[in-house]
Amino acid sequence: MGELSTLPNIAAKLEAQLADAGITTIEQLKATGSREVWLRILANDPSACINRLYGLEGAIQGVRWHNLDEDAKKSMKAFYKKYKG
After folding, report:
1. Domain boundaries, the chain
2. What CATH superfamily classification does 3-84 receive?
3. What's this model's pTM, rounded to 2 decimal places?
4. Distant-in-sequence contacts of 25-34, Cβ < 8 A, 24+ apart
């Protein structure tokens, strides 16, 4: 496991999906942002769910996704619905 797995919410499977999406460092994840990274993952895995989006954002913020503030979750949910209905 690499450095991404040191972040909250990032286990082996998601770390592998991040690598497939061209994200291998914490800096790349932060620079790309949770939404763009999630779209890249979705392109390879149609089962990418909203919890994965939340998890990516939580990893960037350094918190478990359950602890994201409600405004952030609401904004991400609206984004998610554009792509997954």
Report:
1. 3-84
2. 5' to 3' exonuclease, C-terminal subdomain (1.10.150.20)
3. 0.94
4. 29/4, 29/56, 29/59, 29/60, 30/60, 33/60, 34/59, 34/60, 34/76
10 Å Cβ neighbour count for 34?
22
CA 55 from centre of chain: 5
Cα–Cα distance, 85 to 73 (Å, whole number): 16
**pLDDT per position as a tens digit, 10-61:** 999 999 999 999 999 999 999 999 999 999 999 999 999 999 999 999 999 9
Question: Per residue in 52-82, pLDDT tens?
Answer: 999 999 999 999 999 999 999 999 999 999 9
Residue 37's CB is within 10 A of a number of other CB atoms, namely 25
